[in-house]
Specification:
single chain; alpha+beta; 2 domains; 12-stranded antiparallel beta sheet; 6 helices; 12 strands
């Protein structure tokens, strides 16, 4: 009886893990409009447009309701009482967009990097997007074959928030992607790579080199980047 109970417990645990990992992709059916076929919660980072501020390098600011479009990598805002939206234009005078408690630093001409945490003179930033990883061609009777191998291709993008009708003959698969950068006190963005760390902390290049040599750092993992920045922040 104990053996049977354990086996049942194990099966339940395995089922829960599989269920959590079984659908990491968002599928857009052939010919469908992205706006209509993908739910709001999957297209945007926040469940609703939230009151925030657009801050310029001159420290001037303006208020609006913002949300970040994961598919387009664009910052959208509501323009009227009916809920119509536009994307922020590429403006080199923009410094950041604040949405609720979150800050998004703007890297001209088109990237918004969310602040994760600060470490002395450096700030860890993240950019979340939905990337196109595969197209599945139609088979007989207008059915997608699903036979294509998963492969990294390119980010789906648009202009000023426009979402065009997608390929009429292919299902499209999207998945989440996270990228990281580091911003210094002068507002310069650095790649979250070994060379980026060495450039940012050039004054302590040898100490940083030694740390990276002695520690296994995955520059694509938030926890490892925090660990490395935590060390760099202790350097005199």
């Amino acid at each position: 009886m104990k053996l049977l109970s354990f086996a049942r417990f194990l099966l339940i645990g395995i089922h829960a893990i599989v269920a959590a990992q079984s659908n990491p992709y968002v599928r857009v059916k052939a010919g469908e409009n992205l706006t209509n076929s993908v739910s709001f919660n999957k297209r945007y980072q926040y469940p609703e447009f939230t009151l925030g501020r657009l801050v310029y390098a001159s420290s001037k600011s303006s208020a609006a309701r913002f949300n970040y479009n994961l598919f387009l990598g664009e910052m959208h805002f509501i323009i009227n009482s009916t809920g119509d939206t536009l994307a922020l234009q590429n403006d080199p005078t923009v410094q950041l967009v604040v949405i609720g408690p979150d800050s998004f630093y703007y890297e001209y001409p088109k990237s918004y990097w969310q602040l994760v945490s600060t470490y002395g003179s450096a700030a860890l930033l993240i950019k979340r997007t939905m990337v196109l990883i595969d197209r599945e061609k139609e088979g007989g009777y207008n059915q997608s074959t699903g036979a294509s191998a998963i492969r990294t291709t390119t980010t789906f993008s648009g202009t000023n928030g426009s979402l065009a009708r997608l390929d009429a003959h292919s299902d499209m698969l999207f998945t989440k992607k996270a990228e990281f950068k580091i911003r210094d006190n002068n507002g310069k963005f650095h790649m979250a790579t070994q060379s980026g760390f060495l450039n940012l902390f050039a004054k302590h290049k040898q100490a940083v080199k030694q740390y990276l040599k002695e520690n296994s750092i995955n520059f694509n993992q938030e926890a490892d980047l925090k660990k490395c920045l935590g060390f760099c922040a202790t350097l005199p």
